[in-house]
Amino acid sequence: MKFRAIMGALCAAGLMAGVATAQAAESLEVLHWWTSGGESKAVGVLKDDMQKQGYVWKDFAVAGGAGAAAMTALKTQVISGNAPTAAQIKGPLIQEWAEQGVLVPIDASAGDWKANLPPQIDKIMRADGHYVAAPFSVHRVNWLWINKAALDKVGGKAPTTWPEFFALADKLKAAGYQPVAAGGQPWQDLTLWEDVVLSQGADFYKKALVDLDQKTLTSQQMVGVFDTVRKIESYMDNARTGRDWNLATAMVINGKAGMQFMGDWAKGEFENAKKVPGTDYVCAPVPGTSKAYTFNVDSFVFFQQKGQKTATPGQLALAKTIMSPAFQEQFSLYKGSIPVRLGVDMSKFDACGKQSYADEQAAIKAGGYMPSLAHGMAQPDATAGAITDVVTKFMNSNQDSKSAVEALAKAAKTR
Ligand code: BGC
To answer: Could you say which residues of the chain have pLDDT below 50?
Structure first.
């Protein structure tokens, strides 16, 4: 009797434990494109956090900078009825997905978000007034990364104007370095091109790439932008076609190349290689853009699971964790970004992180805080895609600047 009673009690406890575990062990299938050294470390923080909370992390990583391949994979998954739990989606694309009626609101986890996000970014996270996306961090796109030993060797300093930039590039070339490391992929071409647009002033950038003002797009100044891009291109190597951005960063890290134009996810690679800003490398705003800031905010959206129109406990926990101050700090330290949540302590960040934060605050005040076109923040997908095609075609042919500008003006009308 006694034995049976004990066994019964143990079984009941076992069953109960089984039930509790089964309930807590919700699987989170998470689609993202964070596969480089620094990126993997950063997303690993979220994985560990969710596993500690009792969830099962099913990584759905689709390699490819800026996420073009990931977006194609996502569409296939959703169309075939296998939407992931969460996916890395940003900017106007959030609204485009919300309009498809496949996302769930996560308001229950977003109680304090409005007071803790810059208004420009808070707006992007909502559809129909409801929060449908959780923001990770702010990347600044308009950075130039320079190998410090190379810079010292040619007695140079970080260039603040295009003439200074070209003078430095010539010196680096003469000293045997590849002056500019780059990867010939459409999004990398567009990243450089938008940097040069920004160097004409935040107003010019806004009129051209946010308002799509035809007069600005067809201006002589825009012809000059293409001329500058053509000149920068002459300092890149011919083997760059298809090269991933992090391999180009590695060329700067290991001293093969002198400089790279790239958003500060590149800092995640320097950090991962244990390189220190000011000692091993220099971060500087792209020439002519010190007062402006092109922002790129990563976020996750949450898909309806099994036809349910409300978020699962796991989705709510994921959203809450992403916006928690401790996660925001550690993720950005690995990722090269700065926390998107306002008021997070910046004391652990390096000089580039601190500069990004200070420049962001100054740009917000001065009207120089601009959404990055190349990183899906400024225009709907179709428009951004059409402009990308123009820039990539220009960079991969001998097209003259004037006809590129004509093609640009036409592409900007794509909806
Ligand atoms: C994303 C970054 C990512 C980079 C390279 C950008 O569009 O916002 O998070 O590190 O692409 O893949």
So the answer is: 1-22
